[in-house]
Amino acid sequence: MKKFKVYSPDSPEETKMEKQHRALARKVAAESIVLLKNTGVLPLKTQKVALYGAGARMTIRGGAGSGDMRERYSVNIEEGLQNANVTITSKAWLDRFQSDYQKQSDDRRNLIEEKIKDYTQKDVLKMFEVIAAVPLKYPIGSKIALEEIPQDDTQNAIYVVARQAGEGHDRHVEKGDFLLDDVEVANIKLLAQKFKNLTVIVNCGSMIDLSPLDQIDNIGAILFVGQVGTEGGNAVADVLLGKVTPSGKLVDTWAKKYTDFPAAESYSYLGSDLTNADYTEGIYVGYRYFDTFNVAPRYPFGFGLSYTTFDFKSTSQLIKGSSVKVKTQVKNIGDTYSGKETIQLYISKPGIQVQSEKIALCAFEKTANLKPGETAELTLSFDLNDVAVFNEEKALWLLEKGDYTLLLGDSSQNISPIAVLKVSQDIDVEKVAHICPKTRDFKELEVAKGKTHVAAGDVPSLTVDPAAFKLIEHSYQPSTAEPTAKTTEILNNLNIEDLVTLCVGGGQFDKYYNLTPGVAGNTTAALLEKGIPNINLSDGPAGLNVLTETLITPDGIQKFLRKIPDSNNWGFIRKMADYAIAKPQEGRPVYQFMTAWPAVVNQAQTWDPDLVKQIGSAIGAEMLEIGVSLWLAPAINIHRNPLCGRNFEYYSEDPYLTSVMASAVIEGVQSHQGVGVTVKHFCCNNQEENRDHMSANLSERTLREIYTKAFKFVVKHAQPKAVMSSYNKVNGVYTANNYDLLTKLLRNEFGFTGIVMTDWNAAAEGKADYQKCQASGNDLIMPGYPVARESLLAGLKKGTIPEKAIKTSAIRILNLIFSSAVGEDF
């Protein structure tokens, strides 16, 4: 094997870039925090606080599974307040909570170690699946004793409710998870009685049922902080103390109770059949359901309070071709605090031929920081092609004849008509081929046609010119790939067995030329002598999830430096400590302290694509620093239900908001030459329970308008370098084997030109079929084992896999490798 190459720093010192990225993470976290209630308690006007609740000291900075991080350090809420010179007067309860937490952690470890005691190196992925299946449920903590209430002049109390979730399991409608625990309710009641001012903080990647708080007087403020990353505690303190005026907005509708969500009682483990998820709500997801069916939410989509007040009005509306622009004036009419406001534009469609939701988000803009009395002008714009409805009967994207009302506001329920767009005739936008036929007979939620349109009233009228639109049609052919000059040169030296090798990842334990300790996967290093290096692929959505301190021996073996990290210190790895741990003098030390960014849902709550683009650029810079070529993110699945265990790493219930924010982070990453993103999970990965075998069953319209719309948008606007197919089936067919999805939709219609890879072990015995991957349009099988290569070779021999399909996949993979920073000079 050729001499290996390591890009990562060999010094443990905090770099200038790391410090800059921490500052950006703090800014993003503060701007993502949503103020749900405030009677004047916030910002705090004191430097003394009684602090309680699970998230005070054990603040959850991100989710579990592939979304986890191994950063240098993170700041909890207690530390953040203390860093801001706030005195915490409730240390006794916090110390007792920490002791309870340690006991629960020890009990979990003992339980897991018993389950994995016989696992060996070949079972490593299975071992970590077992670990993930027994999540550390953060303790609620015990009831606050009267003696743990400070007896001094402390007037402000804060209670932090915390929840954890992650890959492989969904949340549950039970106390201590989606519901508040009796202990939490009792503690909040006690604090409301004992303190003049009480703030409740929700530290969770998704919503919690807050209905018990309705019965408690004297709750002065509620903050949804989500999962705020490495600088989370400092950011929360910034908002609590008024150094930052909250400007975050909800990206999901918060219901009054769980059963208010459509299809609530059949979701995931609540249903009778974990192998089939029937999307009976159809297109009516999130606010589309609540607003259309007049179900009052607790907090609407797009909602968020501020320490100041804004006034806004539309000053002009313009249509040119298919482009619509709305100019809006926003003024800070408060007298004390500066702040930012997000203005949202919604559209109400005719819904005459094809039933439609009452409103749909079509544009938004966020102001800069406005001082009291200061005014800003925003321009909100969208393309009418992007608001077309899908006529399933005709397989046609359509702007139907009728009135389209534009509504402006600061949440989905605080909006008013500002203009009407007049469409004089049906406009055919895009003709497509049918895909993914339903295999189960179930009825989707419906509304009467023409009954959901919002009348415009006395507002300006704009005429849409049908001649400005040109019908888009597609050629549905097996996809092809054009090799670059470098790829062509390499291809001439490869046989068919080599091409098959390229289509299978490098596995978990091979030696590699390009080394980045702790990455989730690599392309093969078996073809180095033929001039093909491997590239490295890293989780996760909150940043680069790699090992922080390792050592590379002179012969390229990776070992832990000084100790095994807690996240790896399990089972057979723990028993191999003498072999797995090295001292600095035994090779080349490697230090990789990557930034743990606020969770994706927090990033979306900023409603600031420019800020999210900065995150992407920062991640791209970190990728170059440590030799990562593909980031296994962003994940852009829709929040179909609040119980999904991975909602924290997805953006929103709304496809448009998801599209804009994901495109921003992709553009940021790929602004750096030689690195790229992997958009995932394509598609309908909307539950974690039995995700390897369940089938998402839905109509073609629902599939196109809700669950693949963001993928279409990001391909069109940001062209990611890779897409990851999901674990699940769609209408009975595994996505990795689904020609309709991967070729007809993703490549023929969306125009995607990069590589498609499987999720890890999504193709395996009893799951997606290895031999159907390439023929369907799935190029790379990950993480890659000999059995996959053998299966592909057997398929070629039998004729079940066209040789052309293998060559096409190999070309795409080679193009990616030699366009990457680590492959350019190989």
TrEMBL record:
Pfam families given in the database record: Fn3-like, Glyco_hydro_3, Glyco_hydro_3_C
One GO BP annotation of this record: carbohydrate metabolic process
Keyword Hydrolase in annotation: yes
UniProt keyword Coiled coil present: no
Keywords annotated in UniProt: Hydrolase
Coiled-coil zones: none
Transmembrane segments: none
Single annotated GO MF: hydrolase activity, hydrolyzing O-glycosyl compounds
Domain Fibronectin type III-like: 341-412
Record-stated family: Belongs to the glycosyl hydrolase 3 family.
UniProt name for this protein: Glycoside hydrolase family 3 domain protein
